[in-house]
Amino acid sequence: MGTPHRLLPGAFRLPCFPNPNCRHIGTTMNPSRIALAVGLLFGIGVSACSDDNPTDPGSSTDAPNAGTSYTLRGVTTDELGRIIQSRDIISVIVETNQSYFGRTGLVKMVTAGSPGYLQYGANGDIATVYYVSMNGVLVDSSWISYPFGSKSSSALPAVNQNLSGFVVTSQGEITYVGTESVTVPAGTFETQKVRIATRMAMGSPDGELMRNERIDTVFYSSAVRYFVKQSGIQHQIFGDDTTTFYNVGTLSSYSLK
Predict the structure, then answer these.
(1) Can you tell me the distance from the alpha carbon of 13 to that of 26, in angstroms, rounded to the nearest whole number?
(2) What distance in Å separates the CA atoms of residue 211 and residue 221, rounded to the nearest whole number?
């Protein structure tokens, strides 16, 4: 199977709008140089990728065609509103009816030269890979579904792994929120909203070293068959020290084929 996106050593994953190979900037850690991340691939010794295929809904024939492209503008700021990063990311669907990580009928999308996979489910959900990593090493991964069609809520796969003497735990929920009319540079769209909340901690035999708490809301439009907006907040917690980052991603243009 392919390898999910991994962090650079010493970099902490920041919130990012969803795409199959979401790339991130990093912030310098404390002297321990330990990075902890939880993420969604869309474009969260070690547990390798398994071929588990939980609740596979089957793939829809209504996925975007090859040649379809999306441009998103992403802006990340700190708690004072200072811009940390602002850039455009172009994602292009290059192939359809692909196989990856135990599933078939997938869409292959390339973003900034890196491939990723989406499953447009027959039930209206969209599936992607959830992964957890530390210092660029994959801790765990599994398929999860954004419940746009099933309009449900579910727990994210729980993680409790020992990695080189450090214990990494992760838990979270993914929840259908409802509908909302959203205006972005690409236009005004009727969307469905899903919220993803994740909580991670990493500890050593001497006690907890750090925590990462993150909430993201994604807005999906059936008109473009993709996400038109994402907003997120992430807290990095070291003892009594908390650093907060905000991220907003908006669709600026698209081309359907």
Answers:
(1) 6
(2) 33
